[in-house]
């Protein structure tokens, strides 16, 4: 039995099996797509032909799976050659963007933990690591022009534990940030594994940490911005950036340094959950609306997004943001990351924008994995392993139309309000990230026709053992271990049913 995750496009057995002596030949064939590969294993060893170096790399990951779980340990522990099946695999990804978003703003993860996740993405043939670097609860990237962003903004005095009632607190200060060299190391480490790191600098909402560091960034004619601290609890925040030229110049400074670190095409600017009550109450913001000839506060936010779209385009980059950036109009070059079900992504694709699908109703991995009472910090909708395996990035309303090509990929997101360390990240991500990886890479049937029992069998037969070898603290299929539970930490479940996919 060959247990490959993600499932390849074509697998042909060419004979029996035999010991693998480690002879691996590789070459590039430009006639293949850049990430495509052919892997042939025979008595003479293995040959990997890739359309580019990325294709060769993905072929190596498949060969690694064939060599058994011990191939995923840091050093070899076996003394005898491993027996491998003789076969030919032809494979290529369905989507160019196969992403995972890791929120390091709410709970900071040390650099080594991020590097470890780069390796885990590579194992699963995922090729984008989206780092959520700034939010109300913390600023995690060093900016030399504005040092208080990390001196002040990277630290909060306490942290709310979980969601809901009763409200309880971890009274220990929490924080941390990545130096520019730390991030350069992460980017270089990822590039060696053909993974692009996409930074997110959130604006104009989700910015209280920045305002706490530099009060002049906030709407000082409405609130006492000097009294704001780095936010210690969760939820949508009314304190947003002021829509001024000074703020635009400040974030141009920030993004100038970000571009020096991250060479990839896309830069994420957030744009979500920007409450506009302060702008409505602000005489300065209302004057800005009149000055720019805008209709309302939605167009005011759109003007800020458009500004940075042009600014990034002038430097050879592309803006991507959450689907709220569609509100008030969106510059043509911008791409949309769709999180509020499929609606925004469908609208964006039909308007000619590239789309990455990551609907919270389907692939938010901070949401609970079962409805049982032992799940730690129950939150969101229930997303079982099977639910994630049946996720379909291209909704029915786009399928079979020219707009479907605008869906450039899919992403699973992991927010960390209730995810405090690496073990909790592992628990929330795995095994569901393995199911997502197969959806993002493989050409699968209609969601209702997918053979989940086959996927589950492959997980049980081989992939859990690989995760064990990698040291991943995943959720067992039978439910959480006692030490993975968090009794007494309140949660918050969504009380509205998930919309069925076929209505998308």
Please give the domain count.
2
The low-pLDDT segments are: none
CATH topology of the largest domain, by name, is TIM Barrel
Intertermini distance: 37 Å
Structural class per helix/strand content?
alpha/beta
| Rg value | 23 Å
| Strand elements, count | 21
Strand order of the largest sheet: 6-7-14-15-16-17-18-20
General shape? globular
- Specify the number of helices: 15
Report helical residue fraction: 25-40%
CATH homologous superfamily (4th level) name of the largest domain: Glycosidases
* Strand residue percentage: 15-25%
Report the biggest beta sheet as strand number plus sense, adding barrel if it closes. Answer: 8 strands, parallel, barrel
CATH class category name of the largest domain: Alpha Beta
EC number: 3.2.1.52
Domain Beta-hexosaminidase bacterial type N-terminal: 17-92
Biased composition (Basic residues): 495-504
Enzyme class: hydrolase
């Amino acid at each position: 039995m060959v247990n490959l995750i993600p499932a390849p496009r074509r697998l042909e057995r060419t004979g029996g099996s035999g010991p693998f002596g480690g002879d691996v030949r590789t070459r590039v064939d430009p006639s293949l797509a850049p990430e495509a590969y052919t892997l042939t294993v025979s008595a003479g060893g293995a040959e990997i032909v890739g359309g580019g170096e990325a294709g060769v790399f993905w072929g190596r990951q498949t060969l690694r799976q064939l060599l058994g779980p011990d191939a995923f340990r840091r050093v070899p522990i076996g003394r005898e050659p491993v027996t491998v099946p003789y076969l030919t695999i032809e494979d290529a990804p369905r989507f160019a963007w196969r992403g995972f978003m890791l929120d390091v703003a709410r709970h900071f993860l040390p650099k080594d933990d991020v590097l470890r996740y780069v390796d885990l993405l590579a194992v699963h043939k995922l090729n984008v690591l989206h780092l959520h670097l700034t939010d109300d609860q913390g600023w995690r990237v060093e900016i030399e022009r504005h040092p208080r962003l990390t001196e002040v903004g990277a630290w909060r005095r306490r942290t709310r534990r979980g969601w809901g009632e009763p409200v309880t607190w971890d009274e220990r200060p929490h924080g941390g940030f990545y130096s520019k060299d730390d991030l350069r190391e992460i980017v270089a480490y990822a590039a060696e594994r053909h993974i692009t790191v996409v930074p997110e600098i959130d604006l104009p909402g989700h910015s209280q940490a920045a305002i706490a560091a530099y009060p002049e960034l906030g709407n000082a004619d409405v609130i006492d911005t000097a009294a704001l601290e780095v936010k210690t609890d969760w939820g949508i925040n009314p304190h947003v950036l002021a829509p001024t030229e000074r703020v635009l110049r400040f974030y141009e400074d920030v993004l100038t340094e970000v571009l020096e670190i991250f060479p990839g095409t896309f830069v994420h600017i957030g744009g979500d959950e920007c409450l506009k009550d302060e702008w409505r109450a602000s005489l300065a913001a209302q004057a800005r609306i009149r000055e720019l000839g805008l209709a309302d506060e939605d167009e005011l936010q759109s003007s800020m997004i458009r500004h940075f779209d042009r600014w990034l385009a002038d430097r050879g980059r592309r803006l991507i943001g959450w689907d709220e950036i569609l509100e008030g109009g969106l510059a043509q070059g911008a791409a949309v990351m769709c999180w509020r079900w499929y609606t925004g992504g469908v609208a964006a694709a039909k308007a000619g924008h590239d789309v990455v699908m990551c609907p919270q109703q389907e692939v938010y991995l901070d949401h609970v994995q079962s409805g049982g009472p032992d799940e730690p910090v129950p939150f969101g909708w229930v997303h079982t392993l099977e639910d994630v395996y049946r996720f379909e990035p291209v909704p029915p309303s786009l399928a079979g139309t020219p707009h479907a090509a605008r869906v450039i990929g899919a992403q699973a997101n992991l927010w960390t309000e209730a995810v405090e360390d690496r073990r909790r990240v592992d628990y929330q991500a795995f095994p569901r990230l393995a199911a997502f990886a197969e959806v993002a890479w493989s050409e699968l049937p209609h969601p209702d026709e997918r053979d989940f029992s086959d996927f589950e069998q492959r997980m049980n037969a081989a992939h859990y053992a690989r995760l064990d070898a990698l040291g991943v603290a995943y959720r067992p299929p039978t439910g959480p271990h006692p030490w993975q539970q968090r009794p007494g930490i309140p949660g918050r479940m969504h009380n509205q049913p998930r919309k069925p996919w076929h209505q998308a």
